[in-house]
């Protein structure tokens, strides 16, 4: 995840990451709450902020842990 920073303010950057997570899970009510906090901090939404993140590849399956041997 080597994206160029969208802001110098660490709080706004954290809110943008939080917003992306909520948007990816379809939690629209939480996205609206984060948008409200961003607006209070003077952040103007860009086209990138409003897009829902998508996966480029599907997640890999988990491997089961082998039993411990004593």
SS element count, helices:
3
Instruction: Describe the main β-sheet briefly.
Output: none
Q: What is the H/E order? A: HHH
Residue runs with pLDDT of under 50 for 5 or more positions:
none
Mean residue pLDDT: 77
Structural class: mainly alpha
What is the percent of helical residues?
40-55%
What integer value in Å does the Rg equal?
17 Å
Terminal Cα separation, in Å? 40 Å
Record field, number of beta strands: 0
Fraction of residues in β-strands: under 5%
Task: Provide tags for this entry.
70 residues, mainly alpha, 3 helices
Itemize the secondary structure elements and their pairings.
Blueprint: H1 10-24, H2 28-40, H3 47-50
Helix pairs in contact: 1-2
Overview of the structural elements:
The chain is an all-alpha fold and 70 residues long. The protein is built from three helices and no strands. It is elongated. It starts with 9 loop residues before the first helix and ends in a 20-residue tail after the last helix. The relative contact order is 0.15. The mean pLDDT is 77.
Short description:
The protein has 70 residues and is mostly helical. It is 46% helix and 0% strand.
